[in-house]
Design goal:
Radius of gyration: 17 Å
Distance between the termini: 25 Å
Helix content: 25-40%
CATH superfamily of the largest domain: HAD superfamily/HAD-like
Strand order of the largest sheet: 3-2-1-4-5-6
Bound molecules: magnesium ion
Largest sheet: 6 strands, parallel
CATH class of the largest domain: Alpha Beta
Shape: globular
Number of helices: 7
Number of strands: 6
Order of helices and strands: EHHHHEHEEHEEH
Structural class: alpha/beta
CATH architecture of the largest domain: 3-Layer(aba) Sandwich
Length: 208
């Protein structure tokens, strides 16, 4: 496994980890509301939960990470760890790309919890990038759920699969509704890449 391998850029929250499920449980506690009152059909900024009058999203996020170990305790999305292990066995280099360093003074906790969580679910990866500009890391195919990230990646010609959730219904495909879809789409992309000898780096692939 080296830099000449086929690289899969993987987002964590909402793709590998059940971010919205975990946040819903924590937000119910923080807002002192029955969980049923918080719709699971959320948009990206969680505005449906009316967190503004309790201090806003950033306070909820800080509470979730520092007091409820959000990044260590969230459940993975169904089949995600096992499919990533299979993809790794196909010689695909897994590059985690996450924007979890979103708030100041929570970086150490966020990084520690993230790495502990990846180990505890035996999620294979060779690289981990904590950054917002996902296109800058160079991957042959990306999987992400955030509408903004997907639009930006595609704008820069990056082959990007949308991982379906309530935040991204408006985006065009290709999309994966499950990790078995991810497996198929990523293996197809790798096959295309392997079958085209002159395509050797992140700038040479065709947007889906
Ligand atoms: Mg995400």
């Amino acid at each position: 496994m080296d830099e000449s391998s086929f690289i899969l850029g993987v987002d964590l929250d909402g793709v590998v980890g059940d971010f919205y499920g975990a946040m819903r449980r924590i937000a119910a506690e923080w807002l002192n509301k029955p969980i049923e009152q918080l719709t699971a059909d959320v948009s990206y900024a969680l505005k449906e939960w009316d967190v503004a009058e309790y201090g806003g999203y950033e306070r909820l996020h800080r509470f979730a990470v520092t007091q409820r170990s959000l990044f260590r305790d969230m459940q993975p999305m169904r089949d995600a760890p096992a499919v990533l292990r299979k993809l790794s066995m196909h010689g695909i280099r897994i590059r985690i790309i996450t924007h979890r360093l979103y708030l100041k003074y929570v970086h150490k906790t966020s990084i520690t919890q993230t790495v502990d969580w990846l180990d505890s679910w035996d999620i294979p990866y060779w690289d981990i990038c904590f950054m917002k500009d996902k296109g800058a890391v160079g991957a042959h195919v990306y999987i992400d759920d955030s509408p903004d990230n997907v639009v930006q990646l595609r704008k820069h010609g990056c082959r990007t699969i949308v991982f379906t959730n309530s935040t991204n219904h408006s985006l065009p495909g290709p999309r994966a509704d499950s990790w078995h879809d991810v497996e198929r789409l990523v293996l197809d992309a790798k096959e295309e890449w392997t079958g085209t000898p002159d395509v050797s780096g992140a700038s040479g692939y065709n947007p889906l």
